Amino acid sequence: MDGRSRLLILLALLAATIALAVSSEQPAAAPPSTPRRPSSSRYVWSEPVPVVRGFPDSPPDVATTRPWRRNPFVYADEPEAPVYAPPPPPPPPPEIKPQSRFIGTVQRGEMIAVFSWKNDVFPLRKGEVLDDMYMITSIEPEFVTIEDTRYHNTAILSLGGRT
Q: Which residues make beta-bridge pairs with 123?
């Protein structure tokens, strides 16, 4: 370093020292009574922040709890969530009442159930649908088992009537 750059550095240090001395001689401005809102803050206080003091004889509550014992992430007492009753159970499925009447079975390689409806006779195999809502699940010589395709409950239709 040459002499000229040293002189510039010393002058800069001297100017900084004088600026600090002059600023410390001025009286400090009184702090505001309410906290100022920083530009990045979302909250504004309208009153001064109260000082929280605990008393040894009092029970601990929000007003007397020491600040370091409070949860800083909870702002107020949160109301408890309402307790809802469970939904009522669904109603039982309706009783299976086909419009057609089971009148017998026929053996043609496999068992076929025969039904009548409005003076008309029609055969149905296992897996076919009766009255657009009941599926034939099994066929035996004396009875037929049908299942409701909507509610999946089953019923047995026998030659003597429904069982």
A: 114
